[in-house]
Amino acid sequence: MDAKKGSTLRRGGAGGRRSGRTINKTLVYEYALRCAIKAYNEQQVKPGTPAATKRERHTSTHLGSSMGDVFSGLTDSGSGKSDKLNKEVVRGLIRRLEEIVSGENTAKPEYLDQRFLTVVRQFQKVLQQHRYKPTGTVNDLVIIFLKTSESELKRNNPNPAVWYGDLNKYMACFSEVVITTVEEDAPSMATPELMDKLSGFLTTKKRSDTRSTDKSSPTDKFEALEKYPMIQTLQQVFKIDELEHRKKLREVEPLCTESAYLIDLKKCINNVHTNQPFPGRREDYTSDQMYDLWQKREVKQLTELMKSLMLMNPNLSIGVDSQDDSGGAFTYIPNDPRSFFRVLMDACLEYDVVTNGDAERAKSSVLSVQSDILLRECWKGWRLSAASRGVLYLELIKTRFDYEQLNMEDLNDAMRSLDRVIKDNDVSTWAINDRESLIRVFESLNQTLLHELADALSVYWKVNPRWISDIIAMLDKIYENPAYQEDHDNPLNQLHNLEEVVEGAAVERWRLVQKETTDPEQDLLPNLLTLADKLIKEYVSLTNKKFKTPLKDIINVPGIIMARQMPYFALEIENWTYTPDCRNAPIEVTFELYHKVLSLKRLYDQHGPKNKTVLFKVESWFMSHVRRWLITTSNATLEWVENAVKQDQFTRINDTTLHSSSIVDLFSMFHQAVDFVQNLQWPNELQRCRFLTVLSKVIGIAIQQYTLTIEDLIHHQDLFAPEVREQEALTTTAAFLGRAQQLMGTRKEMEAPADFTKELCVRINNIEAARLRLDRLYELVDADEVAEYMRDNHVPAQEKTEQKKNYLYSVKVVRGENLQPLDKTGLSDPYVVLSFGENQSSRTRTVYETLNPRWDQTFDMWLDDKTTDVLAVVYDEDMLGPNEECGSVWFQLSPQWFDDYQTHELILSLHPQGNLVVRVSMEGEKDDIQFWFGKAVRTLKRAENDTAGLIVDRMGRFLREHLSRRTLTTLLGREKSFFSAFSRANTFVEPSLQDCEDCIAPVLDYLERNLKILNDHLSEANMRMFIIKLWKDILTSLESVILPPLSELQSDLTPLDEYEMHVVFKWLELLKILFNGGEDGDGVPLDRLENSSYHALLAVNAAYTMDTDKLIEGYNGALKNQIAMKMRGGRKTDRSKTVYQSRHTNKHQAARALPVRKSSVATDLPNSEAILRILRMRPEKQARDFLKTEFERRNKAAQEEQQQQLQRQQGSAKALPQRTSSSNTVPPLPSHGSSPRNPTRYASLVEPAGVPPVPPVPRTSSVSTSGRASPLR
């Protein structure tokens, strides 16, 4: 840059740097004193005259309005933004001036002066230009009004002495209007500075050019001058003796005239035009364009200052014009203004910082208000630019900061002041000398700031983050300055040296922290906890408060610190893991340390160095402790269950929650355990999945134990009282006596079982609640994702049991269905014998007088890995003679079929008839979360189903006792005796519907009471399942009254006659009405009650009295229909509208419909088994032969099918046993009524109608007559 060599900004010489010679402070004091005297004289002229205001404005235009905030005048922006013109001020002035011109406002005499009105009209034209887009300031409007008034007054008389007083009045009036406008329309602009400036025009004192009007004596004038604050401040700053100060004041006071100031201004203009060193010349700027810009601005400002001075004193120009203004020294400007101003500012700073520290400070400045005023007066007169002043002030503040005389806030204020200068005056427009000074100061300040930053980082844990941010902010301003960037290619490289400082500080800090957190009297684990906690707090403070971002995106202070300290911490943890105390450390404290270590790891991963080393071996450090926790949790599982059940009163928690407290307690423990594992946030995902899998096993075992406990309570405390269990445990002799009593006719009628309890319902609800909560827990642990992740990562569900030669099987004999009747009563006394190989066998207890027994007995056996054939034989226990075989079946046990370790329910078809339900499982487990949850869910579902079955079994015994042929005989009066055979009167009268109801009143009462209890306290789902099973059992009981059991032998039972059949179907109708809800029909919907089993029972009537030939023909047709049904996919033909057409009946309609019911009977026959059961009651040889032939065919087909099934199982290595599931549903049951039973209400729902040839038509849901209150509402 060639222009740098010719920079000669100072008057006394060339060169951009400070002169080596020492500046005489006495000369600085003298020239500053001259400026102070000039300021005093200006004040005495008239502080508020337009000329003074004009001069103040023009002075401010070049060097700033004031130096009030140290340097509000560092900018060349006039009076600043506080008086910037806006629309509110412009519109308010237009409105008020229009009121004056129009004559609306005549408050002042001047408002009637035509000359004033002419000035206002001319000013209005100028003001209209600012109406929509205001520019400039309020000061500009005052100057414009001043010039307009001066032109108008000169037109009438050019002599200023004539109209000078009028000018003052015009300016005072206009100023008052402006003040009112600002205060009312733009109060935010009404700053004290602006108001003071405008108020100065309101004074009306005149000033005499010769001061002839001043009657004060010269002595008084000198005393006033001596007491002038600026002069006193100057004396104090330079510490001048009072006598010398007074002497110097008397010496220079005569020199300080307005004429001398005017001559100085003219000399400055002349120097600018002749390219003199002061105030500036072409060589001082980088280009002609920059120089021309400065020259025009400087000449304009100097010219306006001269005009203002002559306007204030019109006679001044006459005397000055005659004087020679070329060459010679300046009166007010020293020969080296820049150097003189440096000395003056340094002296002011020294005085204010050291001596006058309590003085009132200027805004955002170290300087006092009086020093600020003194400096402002000097730089205005000495023509110093804002750039030079700003750089000089920063340099001096920085020097005192280095000597710790000033703080960072003072340095910030100086930097902000310089920022304002740079913002208002682009560095490219600066003089070369100012630019060089700026770079030099920035270089020195950069070194100072880097040293401060290094000192701060060396104690980073103590440093205030604001201190760091202030340093970085100043460095940013330095590095972003275009002039600095031109001379420094990459200034950020200097910051790399700070990394070593941070590393050393991190090591030193580690020693201090370790020393603070180590207590020799404690174990290593508490010390590690304290250390980790200390580090976490410190790192969080570093990353969130002190060093949120890297310093200039280069120095990542938290990352450097962690990179140095974390290896030490990892070594401490590693050493602890090898100590003996680690293995037995308290679980709670250990995992507290784990979470702190995990927090440190997250901080390290987020803020640590980019190229991280594997420091945190969390898996190896804490894996053994997680295993310890899992083992402890597993061992506490049984205790969980026991405590939950022991503390449970089995009462509902509240009106809306149907389960009891044990469910809440148990699953609270489950959730705590799951939350514990999930809150670990284990770094290794595969290991985390394994933890959840192991925990699922713990939960599954607990659920299984809880279910078994609840089932045991239901079986032994709720359903079967101790006396019932004692009856079941009768010896063979006691059983023989009971059978003998039955044969002799002395057996007592069975009493109704005890009513169900609320506790039973709550226990059943607990099982359902456990299943539902387990489903939610399954979703909570994301079991599907866990299992999928383990499979995707090549971790198959492996068997946890070792390969053994023997396997433990569990076979539970659940129940039998439709067994072969072998006793004369049409029933059997069945028990089951399981044979495993040659020497192993197991036997169940005997269940008396039933074809659908329930054993629920489990047998465990050890078998090898080969396939084992198991023979299950059902025997009928006889008191006299050998036990007969009811049926038998083979099935197989093999690891290849039960290797899923789940419980499989097998429905085995017995030979010759009936089914045997067994549940088989092989002990073992899989490393699969779905396995354990699935096993638990299946356990709960089976428990729900079994419990419903137990309830129905308990009720079924009582129902079958009353819904029997014995009850029919009693009702019809057909009890057989010795004399009945000789009775002549053998006529029978069909019992009424009320009679039919009364004979089964114990059943209806029992059902009504217990269904109400169950419906009130069971959940909706459990109640649906129970109703389905109970209704099916009732239909089966009624069917057993009509038909004998299925067998190939002829039955001793005789067919029911017409009257007996009517009674049976009336019972069916009464029970259906009870379940449907009585007269309201708001119980179980009819479409659920009138199901396929219901219609099958009705269909029996169509074939009951049919000829044997037609029955055999119908049987063959039924077989064909069954084959067709299989081809249709197992769907049965809908008989809901073919067997009996439903009718909307009431009390009168039923009576009219009964005579024609015979024509509504459909011709559909029952199924094949029902036909065979009917044929058993036929005495014809044809029927006996057909039964024998058909059973031989059926047995042969069953044997062939069983052999084929065994062959298929042997041919498939992975063939699984048959698994069954059912999902019968009924709609939800409404709330029940609470009225007691009325013996006549059920009969009123069905009309008696003589003795029709067919059973009565089933009642539909439209019946609306009075009846028994339904317990299912």
TrEMBL record:
InterPro entries (alphabetical): C2_dom, C2_domain_sf, Glucose_resp_signaling, MUN_dom, Munc13_1, Munc13_dom-2
Give the region (Disordered) as residue ranges.
Answer: 1-20, 45-85, 1128-1154, 1194-1273
Report the residue ranges that make up the MHD1 domain in this protein: 591-710
Fetch the Pfam families from UniProt: C2, MUN
Compositional bias annotation for Low complexity: 1200-1210, 1259-1273
> Which SUPFAM superfamilies does the UniProt record give?
C2 domain (Calcium/lipid-binding domain, CaLB)
Q: Where is the MHD2 domain?
A: 997-1115
Q: Which residues form the C2 domain?
A: 789-908
Q: Where is the composition biased (Polar residues)?
A: 1218-1238
Mind telling me which PANTHER family this protein's record contains? ADENYLATE CYCLASE ACTIVATION PROTEIN GIT1, C2 DOMAIN PROTEIN (AFU_ORTHOLOGUE AFUA_7G02350)
Return the protein name: C2 domain-containing protein
Q: Which organism is it from?
A: Hesseltinella vesiculosa
